[in-house]
Amino acid sequence: MHAHTRISNVIAFDDAPFVPDAIGPVAVVGAVYARLRLNGVLVGGVARDGDDAAEALAWLVAGSKFVENLHLVMLQGIALAGFNVVDVFTLHERLALPILVVARRAPDMAAIHDALLTQVRGGAQKWALLERLGPMEPLHQVYVQRVGLTLTQAEAVLKDFTVEGHIPEPLRTAHLIAGAIGTGESRGRT
User: Fold this and answer.
1) For the whole model, what pTM was predicted?
2) 33 with 21: CB under 8 angstroms?
């Protein structure tokens, strides 16, 4: 993607709330935006604490009618459904799209490291992925990680897609829809 290309079509993913001991996949919602207009919604699922997030998201996006217009994939945090860490490098490769991870606050990496290595199957590989991605960068009152785009492009995306507060509108929408799917109504802060 050229540095001067304006990113106007994005898909943002968030996961639905889930009961810790529930069986089966956790719902994941993708909100598709053209500038500030909601253009579509995709719903899929990933395994709780699994390792199928990148595959599941790539399959969901690639199989959709929106794929040819998308410029970017946005994620609310690097993990879905507990500790299903999204392999953003694989996702970037599969879809040939840049990936922007957004978080409200910097994660406690020491706590994540301990949890991954003591409680999660495949935790060492997941930690290696996080290390490869590097620390989150503070940008416009949020924290970001990115693959396939510059910090300047990431800044433009945040500016273009944030209406109020600090969370970009596509992520806010994905969060609200995912909350409704999980509990029957949209919930809490986005």
Assistant:
1) 0.93
2) no
